[in-house]
Design a protein that fits this description.
By secondary structure, the protein is of the alpha+beta class. It has eleven helices and four strands. The protein has two domains: 74 residues, Glutaredoxin; 126 residues, Glutathione S-transferase Yfyf (Class Pi), Chain A, domain 2 (Up-down Bundle).
């Protein structure tokens, strides 16, 4: 299939959009990036290509849109199966396990991480506990491998989890914990992932995310109180 006409609609802090651009980069696929104002004036193209949810990310390939990040990752791996490394195992059982862990990551990490800065008191402590425990589960799953895909290269599981990495700084800051202390082997995995240009160039600046979240919190507290 042609690489021409590959467009990604995204919003820069999105972990879900980041995994799409990382997958394309890892596969060596050129694409056009278009930033969306998801909280303001959504483009006509976004509404047209994702009329059901009107959300990013959207992959447009030869004029055809593909929505939802995990579905997009499977599409990328299948559409360009002869280009670059495979993101999914070829073995059916191993593919099922890759899908299981990507689902686990999105079910656990996003919500617990969000609650570390949107909640306070006992709710924040519970979010911190859940998040840290999830990271420890993933650390055990990684085992002695370099990547979740093994020792040779990244898989869809690596891309799913590392897409949250830029948010770790914010969640640790507000949650008051250290992943270097709680899950040091997993943080070593993260640093190994960041040595890959296709990953590092696709991820937003963690400091920029913290600044944005801090601004959102100040505005919320101004209008609604502490």
């Amino acid at each position: 299939m042609s690489e021409e006409g590959v467009v990604v609609l995204n919003f820069w802090p999105s972990m879900f959009g980041a995994r799409v651009t990382m997958a394309l980069s890892e596969k060596g696929i050129d694409f056009e990036y278009r930033e969306e104002d998801v909280f303001g004036n959504k483009s006509d193209l976004l509404i047209k290509t994702n009329p059901v949810h009107k959300k990013i990310p959207v992959l447009i390939h030869d004029g055809k849109p593909v929505c939802e990040s995990k579905i997009i990752l499977e599409y990328i791996d299948e559409a360009w199966k002869n280009k670059g490394p495979s993101l999914f195992p070829s073995d059916p059982y191993q593919r099922s396990q890759a899908r299981f862990w990507t689902d686990y990551i999105d079910a656990k990490v996003f919500d617990a991480g969000r609650r570390t800065w949107t909640k306070k008191g006992k709710e924040r402590e519970e979010a911190k506990r859940e998040f840290v425990e999830t990271m420890k589960v993933m650390e055990r799953q990684l085992g002695e491998n370099t990547y979740f895909g093994g020792n040779d290269g990244v898989s869809v599981v690596d891309l799913a989890l590392i897409s949250y990495y830029p948010w770790f700084h914010t969640w640790q800051t507000f949650g008051g914990f250290s992943l270097e202390k709680e899950a040091p082997k997993l943080m070593g995995w993260a640093q190994k992932c960041l040595t890959r240009p296709g990953i590092s160039k696709s991820l937003p600046d963690p400091v920029k995310i913290l600044e944005r979240v801090s601004t959102i919190r100040r505005i919320h507290e101004f209008f609604y109180g502490d």
